[in-house]
Design a protein that fits this description.
Mean pLDDT: 74
Helix content: under 10%
Number of strands: 10
Shape: elongated
Number of helices: 1
Distance between the termini: 135 Å
Structural class: mainly beta
Largest sheet: 6 strands, antiparallel
Low-confidence stretches: 41-48
Strand content: 15-25%
Order of helices and strands: HEEEEEEEEEE
Length: 437
Amino acid sequence: MNRPAFKLLLLTLASAVLMLAVTATSSAATHRNGAQAAKKKKKKTTKQRVGARGPRGLTGPQGGQGPAGPQGPLGLKGPTGDKGAKGDAGVQGLAGATGLDGATGDQGAKGATGDEGATGDKGATGDKGATGDQGATGDKGATGDKGATGDKGATGDNGATGDEGATGDKGATGDNGATGDKGATGDKGATGDKGATGDKGATGDQGQQGEQGPPGMQGPDGIKGPPGDKGATGDTGATGQMGPTGNTGATGNTGATGDTGATGDTGTTGDKGPTGDKGLTGDKGQTGDKGQTGDKGPQGDPGPSGTPAIVGSSNITSTTFPRFISGITGFSVSNSSSGTGDSGNVLGPALTITKLTVKIQNAAPSSPATTYTFAVRKANGTAADTAAACTIPAGSNTCTFTGSVTTGVGDELDLHVSRTGSSSASPGWVLWTIAYS
């Protein structure tokens, strides 16, 4: 039942009770008035003659509403109405100020600890297998006595250190000898004999070292001055009194701890079942026989013996030709376009050149068609190119000579490089190999 219907029911019951009270009051008043009228009529009848009763008169107008009767008794409490729908949540109020922390009360006494239940019996443990006996250990040999250590000899006293002599004056330095005029640089040809080394100027005598004077005695330390006056420090203000501490609230008694129930006995551990037997291991198959090793083939004929060779390199970046590489052995050998660069290595004994191989960095240009010719040259005595020469054609960067050219004892050998075609080309790095016997 909802609340409006319940209110309407209460209002209806109250109205019914009020009308009942009004009706009872009106009936009582009518009865009283009727009784008084009957008495008067009876008296009047005794004096006069009553005629026939006339017809009933019309109903008079309804009287005004009487005063409200007294409030009736409180009716029985009606059933509880259904819960109304939840209203919208109101605006959250401002958080209240946090109250001061109350004083911490004394810690209550710790309650008694209940008795610990009995521990059940532990199941039986199976018997451990017997351990085999350990073999006996042989006796250790006796250790010999350590020899006595001899006494350390006494250390002698250090000898007195002598006084260091004074440092003498440094002697005067002698005059340097005169430097001769530099001669003019002649044309490079044969290397002349090395000139004699000029006499070295005389060195002045060194003065004697003077004796060093004795060190002076150190003066006594000065008296330490008195410490300066310390600046005045202001007085420290008095410390305020500490406010009283509130009384500690009483702590309630701790309830008793109940007894711990007994622990049941532990059941026995069952016996371990037997371990089954290990299955048989199958036999290992036989290993097949190893095949026979074939006979070793015949050894081939030995290769030809290596040929000794001379290797060298030079970087030709100039476009001025012809050029002379100053030697036939070594790396980064210098080269020049003048006759003074026409010098080389003296190898000593006579050689028979069997092969000349040349490789250059920059291929010979094809347009215009350009070639480079490299020839082993005798530079001393009657200078001339030998027949050991090869030409790199246009578009290529290698050439090879194969033949037999014999040099003389003490010949000075170098490489002569000539060019045809382009006047602005250069081969760059040149690498050569000269095989000889």
